[in-house]
Design brief:
The protein is an alpha+beta fold and about 230 residues long. The protein has helices at about 5-35, 90-100, 115-120, 150-160, 180-200, 215-225, and strands spanning about 45-50, 55, 75, 80-85, 105-110, 140, 165-170, 170-175. Strands 4-3-2-1-5-8-7-6 form an eight-stranded mixed beta sheet, with helices on both faces. The longest helix is centred in the N-terminal third of the chain and has 34 residues, at about 5-35.
């Protein structure tokens, strides 16, 4: 190998290691945020982010406030561990299913209280607010299956068809996005809408007004251009 090629390989390795370190820091920050915002309790829930063909995931059974840069945990798209010594999350099949079949770069799974409550009551979250459009349409509930199983992964993929979020029956939520911030924001929006629907539906003698498919579609189109445009 020439000195020039060796220098190039070293630079590429350094850049990739830097990218992985930054992604891990973002993952840990997001995992801690789920606890701070009371979307999970203890070590329930999990987070992943994809870097190339590598998927970084939270390890199982480790409090998020104890995770350090040295605890980086990563698997390939087949689930083989290629980084770290801590055992990956038990929900790895769910994360890999999403990363393998969608263009998602980040996945957030929580046990948010209101969303989990809704998952026990209906097969689909009623479109009670226009932010339903931001998630691709009414959020479906994936049928129950034991956590950490391929069956659960299959169920959630069906529920995610055309959506960026779903509820897991008697379990929790799963959202995905191009970034961890986007995936997390969708989780927060989903929990808020579930809280809203439960609150409205609990009023005696009244039934919440729901949006039509056309109203949800119009909202989705408008929301697609929401926010600041990037400077060119």
């Amino acid at each position: 190998m020439t000195d020039q090629r060796r220098d190039l390989d070293d630079t590429t390795t350094d850049l990739r290691e830097g990218e992985i370190a930054r992604a891990w820091a973002q993952l840990v920050a997001t995992a801690r945020r789920t606890v701070a915002d009371r979307l999970v309790v203890g070590t329930s829930g999990n987070v992943s982010i994809r870097v190339g063909d590598l998927v970084l995931v939270t390890p199982t059974g480790v409090p998020y406030d104890r995770l350090t840069p040295d605890d980086v945990t990563g698997v390939d798209l087949d689930g083989r561990q290629v980084l770290g010594t801590l055992t990956p999350t038990s929900e790895l099949p769910m994360h890999l299913a999403v990363h393998r079949t969608t263009d998602a770069r980040a996945v957030v799974h929580t046990h948010a209280v209101h969303a989990t409550a809704v998952s026990t009551l209906v097969a689909e979250l009623p479109p009670v607010h226009y932010m339903t459009g931001a998630l691709g349409g009414p959020v479906r509930v994936a049928p129950y299956a034991t956590y950490g199983t391929e069956e659960l992964a299959r169920n959630l993929l069906h529920a995610l068809t055309g959506r960026t979020a779903c509820l897991l029956q008697n379990h929790g939520t799963l959202t995905h996005g191009a970034t961890l911030d986007e995936a997390y924001d969708r989780t927060a929006q989903l929990e808020w809408m579930c809280h809203l629907w439960l609150t409205a539906a609990s009023v005696p003698g009244r039934t919440p007004n729901l949006l039509t498919e056309e109203q949800v579609r119009e909202a989705a189109e408008k929301l697609s251009g929401y926010g600041q445009r990037e400077a060119r």
